[in-house]
């Protein structure tokens, strides 16, 4: 049976961030993920996890200036020094929180940008981050994001992510398969998951097209959950969706899996 983790950046937004931890635990979750912990100290976040008896399974490296629209800097030439400082900061948090894997956001690149330069920068960032994380037995995750929600994002398909992962050659580089993003960009979810299964370390779910609870929309998630079990998937399934209303009111889909 799949293991589900609440995404606290999207779910339980009727509560302030610290209160989302006990709310998730009360709803039956054993683990959580979130975009960023950096507005709080490592000790604070670790305390919220401990008090609610939750694991943190994932968060992102610092993304650049999020408020200004940046969505990562790993593929942006000229930002290498900032990126490396961000890796150090993320590792500090991961060690304090017991987080086993970190996601490296690629960034938005201009349509007329030098594709070769962005690719070269991204690969160099990946290798640097992977080697830094490996010293602490941490995995580095790559996540393709659909270009409808995030126009210009450097990494947009599972095929592209796995090609870059292979070229990098670091064994602790893995890929996230967010079924929401993959359905929008590629479709053919089952065969794509089977093809790349051994190098997929994390999955995420949401309805398509509205990114709400996974029991709605065009993806048959009951079929996907059976596939995960049949394949022996050992990772977590992150619930990265926007509840239609109060989070707790939309969790009926989860009850059979708790």
From TrEMBL:
Biological processes per GO annotation: glyoxylate metabolic process
Keywords, ordered alphabetically: Isomerase
GO terms, molecular function: hydroxypyruvate isomerase activity
InterPro entries assigned to the protein according to its UniProt record, in alphabetical order: HPT_OtnI_isomerases (IPR053398), HyI-like (IPR026040), Sugar_Epim/Isomerase (IPR050417), Xyl_isomerase-like_sf (IPR036237), Xyl_isomerase-like_TIM-brl (IPR013022)
Annotated active site: 143, 240
Residue ranges of every copy of the Xylose isomerase-like TIM barrel domain listed in the record: 22-256
Family affiliation: Belongs to the hyi family.
Protein's recorded name: Hydroxypyruvate isomerase
